[in-house]
């Protein structure tokens, strides 16, 4: 009985947090419009209580990442808007990876064995495909900002990824996109300080469009890496036989 509570108790707790957040309407406030309307009050609180603000931000981000609730993008932009691109990036990385680690451990402990046992050959095949390439696989998925934070975390946990490899790849892979999005948040802050508004046309502003260009380059990076590896492999297959002649 105690073993089941230890194993599934955190799952029940996370489910309760998700249910409360959804039915209370808290997730409806995770929008750029809400961020704009409360920006002055939040920035004033950050200036008055910097340590408390950073701690609260990291905790809130960790809860969101652990429960796989929607909103990481808005939170990351808010990190740049409230704390600037560099401190904001550190806070985002701390909160996102703390929450991801909690979700990873819970999924691996509660469901990992069950999924592997019931999934049979299909799960074993997936595990064999990524075996020895966990770090690279998680790194590439984190580099691509199109994959949801919780999706990658749960997937890594269910295929039995080592916790150290997962965490290292997760932190490293999130750094580029985090810097890009917090830079966007910081750019929005400067535009709003000058009397601008968050509108679709705002994203044509150089302070916003340059980080977006960086994000596009970031999304293309895994494809470039894959192409480079294919080129190197093809080159070896051609050159090595010739060297033996």
Helix/strand structural class: mainly alpha
Average pLDDT figure:
74
Q: What overall form do the CA principal axes indicate?
A: globular
Oligomeric state, counting identical vs distinct chains: single chain
**Distance, first to last CA:** 69 Å
Largest sheet: number of strands, sense, barrel closure:
none
Rg from alpha-carbon coordinates:
21 Å
What is the number of independent domains?
A: 1
Which range best describes the helical content: under 10%, 10-25%, 25-40%, 40-55%, 55-70% or over 70%? over 70%
Q: Given the structure, what is the number of helices? A: 12
- Beta percentage is under 5%
Number of strands: 0
Weakly predicted, low-confidence segments = none
SSE order, as H and E? Answer: HHHHHHHHHHHH
Topology record:
Blueprint lengths: L1 H23 L7 H6 L1 H10 L1 H18 L4 H12 L1 H26 L1 H8 L1 H10 L3 H10 L5 H10 L4 H31 L12 H38 L2
Helix pairs in contact: 1-6, 3-4, 4-5, 4-6, 5-6, 5-11, 6-10, 6-11, 9-11, 11-12
Descriptive tags:
single chain, 245 residues, mainly alpha, 12 helices, 82% helix
Give your account of this protein's structure:
- The chain is mainly alpha-helical and 245 residues long.
- The model has no long low-confidence stretch (mean pLDDT 74).
- It contains 12 helices and no strands.
- It starts with a helix and ends with a helix.
- Helices cover 82% and strands 0% of the residues.
- The protein has one domain (2-243).
């Amino acid at each position: 009985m105690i073993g089941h509570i230890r194993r599934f108790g955190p799952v029940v707790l996370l489910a309760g947090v998700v249910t409360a957040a959804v039915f209370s309407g808290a997730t409806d406030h995770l929008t750029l419009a809400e961020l704009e309307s409360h920006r002055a009050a939040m920035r004033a609180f950050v200036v008055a209580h910097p340590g408390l603000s950073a701690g609260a931000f990291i905790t809130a981000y960790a809860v969101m990442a652990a429960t796989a609730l929607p909103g990481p993008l808005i939170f990351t932009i808010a990190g740049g808007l409230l704390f600037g691109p560099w401190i904001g990036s550190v806070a985002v990385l701390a909160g996102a990876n703390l929450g991801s680690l909690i979700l990873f451990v819970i999924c691996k402990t509660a469901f990992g064995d069950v999924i592997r046992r019931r999934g049979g050959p299909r799960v074993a095949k997936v595990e064999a495909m990524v075996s020895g390439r966990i770090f690279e696989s998680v790194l590439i998925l984190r580099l691509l900002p199109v994959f949801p934070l919780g999706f990658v975390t749960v997937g890594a946990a269910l295929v039995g990824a080592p916790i150290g490899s997962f965490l290292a790849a997760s932190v490293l892979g999130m750094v580029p996109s985090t810097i890009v999005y917090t830079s966007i948040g910081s750019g929005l802050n400067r535009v709003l300080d000058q009397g601008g508004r968050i509108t679709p046309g705002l994203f044509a502003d150089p302070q916003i469009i340059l980080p977006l260009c960086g994000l596009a380059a970031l999304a293309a990076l895994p494809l470039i890496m894959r192409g480079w590896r294919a080129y190197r492999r093809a080159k070896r297959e051609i050159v090595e036989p010739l060297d033996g002649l």
